[in-house]
Structure formats: C-alpha cells, structure tokens
Design a protein that fits this description.
It is a single chain. The chain folds into 4 domains: 5-57, no CATH class; 124-440, Glycosidases (TIM Barrel); 464-553, Immunoglobulins (Immunoglobulin-like, Sandwich); 557-663, Immunoglobulin-like, CATH 2.60.40. 24% of the residues lie in helices and 21% in strands. It has 15 helices and 28 strands. An 8-stranded parallel beta sheet has the order 7-6-5-4-11-10-9-8, with helices on both faces. It has a 4-stranded antiparallel beta sheet with strand order 14-16-19-18. It has a 4-stranded mixed beta sheet with strand order 15-21-20-17, with no helix packed on it. The structure holds 2-acetamido-2-deoxy-beta-D-glucopyranose (NAG) (5 copies). One 2-acetamido-2-deoxy-beta-D-glucopyranose is lined by residues 495, 532-535, 547, 549. This is Endoglucanase D. One of its GO terms (biological process) is glycogen biosynthetic process. Residues 20-56 form the CBM1 domain. One of its GO terms (molecular function) is cellulose binding.
Length: 664
Amino acid sequence: MVSNIAKLAATAALLQGILAAQAPWGQCGGTGFTGDKTCTSGYYCNSFNDYYSQCIPGTAPAASSSSVKPSSSLSTVIHAPSSTSVKASSSVAPSSSVTAKASSSTVASPTTGRTTCSGTFTPISASAFVAAMNPGWNLGNTLDAVQNEGDWNNAPVVGATFDDAKAAGYKGIRLPVTWTYHFTGSSPDWTVDPVWLQRVSDVLDMITSRGFYTIVNVHHDSWAWADVTATGANLTMIEEKFYRLWYQIGTKLACKGSAVAFEPINEPPGTTAEHGAEINKLNSIFLQAINDAGGFNSQRVVTLVNAGEDGAKTSQWFKRPDAKFKNPWAIQYHYYSPYDFIFSAWGKTIWGSAADQASLEADIAAVRGNFTDVPLIIGEWAASPVATETAARWRYFDFFLRTAAKYNTATILWDNGADFLNRATHIWRDTVAQDILSNAVKGVPNSLPDSTTDASATSQSSSAYIYHQQNASVTAQTLPFLFNGNTLTSATLSTTGKPLVLGSDYAVSSSSITFTAPFLSTILTPTSSTTSLANITLTFSHGASLLVNILQYATPSLSLSSTALPATSADLPIALTWRGATRPAAIKAMKSDGGFLVDDWTQYLGPLQQGRLTYNNHWDWDAGHVILKAAVLDAVRAAGKTTTFLIDFYPRVPGNSVNFTLTV
Ligand SMILES: *[C@@H]1O[C@H](CO)[C@@H](O)[C@H](O)[C@H]1NC(C)=O
Ligand SMILES: *[C@@H]1O[C@H](CO)[C@@H](O)[C@H](O)[C@H]1NC(C)=O
Ligand SMILES: *[C@@H]1O[C@H](CO)[C@@H](O)[C@H](O)[C@H]1NC(C)=O
Ligand SMILES: *[C@@H]1O[C@H](CO)[C@@H](O)[C@H](O)[C@H]1NC(C)=O
Ligand SMILES: *[C@@H]1O[C@H](CO)[C@@H](O)[C@H](O)[C@H]1NC(C)=O
C-alpha cells in the first residue's frame, strides 16, 4: 500500500481563492504544507505528487482535458516525479515555454584548489562498474525528498536498510539526492550547506562499507532550478549553479573509492534537440567540475544522461563527452513502460502478450543499437505491487530483467519506500518478485503463473490466486502455469510449512496445476471470511518459488451509491468494506449521454479498458474508501453531466463491480 503520508495527502482538500499567492517556483501544496496554495500571476500550482506542489509557469491544464494526463503526479508515489513516460503530457514543460538555446556563457574556474587524496584508488572500467552493481536498488524518496531527508514517506536512512538490500541480493545502490534546499549561498558561489554534504558522504560510506557499488546524483533539482525547458530559463545561471554544485560535491567526495560513481542529473526535462544539446553541455560542465575538484575524480566512473533519461531521446540527442575527460563513462536511462500498465492507467491490468513483449524488447534493443560500445544502465524501473496485477507483474519482472540482460544492460529497481521494501519491518512486500529478479538476473529460468494476456478479453484470469466467491461451492481448481522447463518439486502451505500431497491434494500436468476439492475444503468453505485464507508455496527445480494466494471474495457494497456533485473541488472518499482484494482494479466513468468522462479514445481499447480512468491522477483508495480525486469532480463539473463510475474489483470477472453516481 501507499504510505500513510501519501494517503493523508491524497484526501487533503485543495484550498482555493486565498490571498498571498506563492512566488514563482514556490511550494504551493503537498503533505504538511499549510501555506497558500495559489500562485502569482503567470504561474499555476502543479501537483508533482502527493508530497509536493510547485508554482510553475503557464496556466493549469483543464481538469476535464481528454488528453493524456501527465504521469508526474503518480511518479513519486510509484517512482520519482519524472517526464520519462512515453505518454507524459507537456504540463511540466508547457509548450509555450521558450525554446532553450545553448548558452554561450563560459563557466567560472574553481576558486578553491584541487583536492589531494592520501589513499589509493583502484580504477574500474565503466562496463565492469555497471556489471558489478547489477542488480541495483534505489533508495527512493529519502535523500531526494523535498525539502529534507525524512520529509516524505521515509524516515532518515539507517544502515540496516542497506543490510536488507544486501540480503535480498542487490549489488548496487543508487542514491538520489536533492540539493536545492541545501544551498546557503547564492550566485556566483552557490555555497552548499557543509552539513548536507557531510550527510551525503556519510550515507555513501554506509553503502560502500557493505560492499555495494553506488551512484550518487543531483535529483529533483532537475525540476526546481535546473530545468532548461522552463519559460525564461536563465541558462547562464543554470550552468553556473550546476558547475558550482558539482565542484562542491566533487570536492567533498573527491577521495571516495572507485565504488562511488556520479550521475550529473536525474531526468532533466527536455523535448527538443536544443534541450538535448543543452543537457549534453550540462554533462560536460559536470565533468569539468568534478575534474577541477581533483582527488580521484578524473578516474571516477560517471553515468551520463540526456533528456528525461528517456531511452529514445537519449538515443537521438546524446553526444559523447570530449576526449579530454578521461572518466570511464556509461549511459544511464530510465524505463517505465508501457505507461498504462506501470501506472495503472486506462484499466490496463493485463500485461504479457507477444506484442507487449516485442514492444518492450524493441525499446531496450533500440538503445543498445544506438550505443553498441557503451555500457548501459537502466537507473530506474519498476512494476509496483501498489499499481499492478500480481501475475502480470511477475511476468513483467521476469521478461524485463531477461531482456535487459540480453542487451547487456544493468538495472536498478526504483523503490519509493511504499513499493517493495518495508524499511521499518525489513519485509519485502512482494518476495516472489524479488526471487524472480535474483534468478532472472543470473539467467536462471523462472516458472510463472499464467494469466490473461489478450487485451480484448472480457475478464482477467490470474494463476497467482485461487479466487473463490463467497457462498459458492468448493470445487477443484486448475491453474495454468508456464513452467519454462522447470519441474514442480513441492507445494506447501506457507503459514504452516505443511506439505501438500501429490495426488490427493494436487495434480500437475505439463501446463497446469490442479488443486483438489478435498484439499481446498480444508482451507475454505462457502462461508469463510472474505480475505486471504492461505498461500501455497510452489517450489521448482530451478528459479523462483511462487505463491498461490487463496482468496475468498465478495463484491464490496458502497456506503452510498449516489451523491450530488459537491460544490467545491476536493477529493471524494466513498466508504466501503473491502471483501477480498483490498483495492480497486479500475474505475470506468460514463456520462449520462453515453460518452466517457475522459479519454474518449479508450473506446478503441478492450472491454476491460474502455472509459477507464487513471490511478492516482483520478482515483485512489485507502483501508476503508475508494477515493475519486478532485480532478475527476472538476471534470464532471466541466461536463455538466451526471456521471456513473463503475468500480471494478479483483478478480476482474463479470459482476464483480459496483456503480457510484455523481449527479449534477
Ligand atoms: C542570469 O544568470 C546570471 C548568472 O547568475 C546573471 O548574472 C544574470 O543577471 C542572469 N540574467 C537574468 C536576465 O536574470
Ligand atoms: C536508435 O534509437 C532510435 C530512437 O529510439 C530508434 O528509432 C532506432 O531504431 C535506434 N537505432 C538502432 C540501430 O537501434
Ligand atoms: C498470502 O500472501 C499475500 C502476499 O504476500 C499476503 O498479503 C497474504 O496476507 C498472505 N495470506 C496469508 C493467509 O498469510
Ligand atoms: C453469502 O451469503 C451471506 C448470507 O446469506 C450473505 O450475507 C452474503 O452477501 C453472501 N455473499 C455473496 C457473495 O453473495
Ligand atoms: C452500472 O451502470 C451502467 C450504466 O448505467 C449499467 O449499464 C451497468 O449495468 C451498471 N452496473 C452495475 C454493476 O450496477
């Protein structure tokens, strides 16, 4: 589940019409923010995520817009605010923005000398580095939090978190760091708080002392002050500040060993070749700054970037660094595709068809095809248990990781603290995904639960579950599996470890496992409570162990089925008691005139996707509610039509849905 903090923010009302608007780039909303939520003229308050809204140039996109919504609001819940997703709209970088021209300014030379280190440095090539940190894990939403470590959904990091990552088999850690709130000086020195530099240095020591390779970066500065696409962006200032920042980071970290690599900037916005050229220039300024800072930096591995750390844009616009820089370098890009599956948009809970796989492979192959001789690392990717269907997610993990390996590309999983590792309890929320990851990275074939892959299907099956409807009689259940050359070696009840008996409890064919009615009757009855009753652990000759979740379900009923559209714009929580799976699968919005509330083009999608809204932009949930976001209420207001919301639950089978109507 999404953190409590995220949930609090998700239900917070959006205040409007208050005086004392925020200055350009000022914070105007987010968790714990109590100030005025409006912006000065020419700017609007853009919600990057539940934790942070900022005044950015331009006018707010219409809430009822039927165009594709930006992914950025979901991004930090699932990963980081970004513009990487293929379908992200231009709201972060309004199309009205002035086209950035590569500035002709020269950057000041260092004012303090070069660092000299007493220790030794063991040089490592960029290809050896990225191979050694594969697979990697991101310490997301932590040192990159706005404004301080601890301000988002994660407590300040402790060493035990890296022990957890180590125990799970990770070899590398990416450490995102936001610097923008830690400047104590302004132009031309841009002095960074030494306490913050020390904290970053200390965390890097926590990481490397545990034997990890690590990449440290400049993170959300990319949408604070370093956005070369922003209207009126002062490129001279961005370049000056970028140089000074990296000179200071380079000085502080100059004597770190070769296990520490640098990444100039996270997901720098960019939509044109000119932006791409300016980002190449930032790569170069970064290299100059760290080399000027001295120490071991001239031999340190760097992972260079281009627009959005998007693979296709990087392929188009990335320029190799000047040969005068001797740093071993790799290219880092990020991968959150397909957008609709990863971000739970338009009801896409299905993934894994031949076409889905071919599209993913083509993306990864294209970046490799453009950079045949460059070490590549996907510095962020994820398919979070919060947003994706279980069997589809496991197939995605397996296929994505095997494909990355096929194209000699290392990977670093994004984990915002609410996705995978529960840092407080040290428990991985999806242990099967972790197991699939470790095996896929090593090239070991995993068995996988089969699931619906046909996007035109009217219902979705998933062999990650035995879904049993309350009051139905208990019958034998046959689940299709993709054994991928492995044989099932045991099936046990995960709670007790009690082995199931082949024959009386279950039978195996070449493509399925059947659990017998007598066995299932020991776990569930028609009147069992509507919850997860047990998991069966399946162990195979090779690869990950799988879980089959025996889940009794009934269709939840809502506390009310209809209400008048509220006069003010706020999130609308609808109370319900979950009965089985504890989240919605999708929500369809139909106007009284028969049209869809948003995204009319979804009429061309399959029946499970038509008219569906997008998680987080449009809807959310908590322990006792489905939440329609303020943006949806605004869309109903703009449409002026009574709208019925069909809430689909898991399993996605006919009848497992309820309607809720907003009347106007
Ligand atoms: C742009 O930034 C530079 C360097 O900080 C500064 O000298 C200059 O005055 C700025 N230009 C504008 C138009 O603000
Ligand atoms: C290079 O990248 C572009 C953009 O993604 C892609 O269209 C092209 O096919 C790639 N080239 C190769 C040789 O893979
Ligand atoms: C079965 O596994 C799922 C996923 O790990 C978990 O949420 C659920 O609580 C488990 N059920 C039982 C009865 O332990
Ligand atoms: C099962 O039966 C009980 C008792 O009649 C009823 O309350 C419940 O709603 C039924 N569940 C379903 C899914 O029909
Ligand atoms: C929901 O409402 C739509 C449109 O009025 C209707 O066609 C559909 O049958 C309803 N579904 C349920 C589950 O009530």
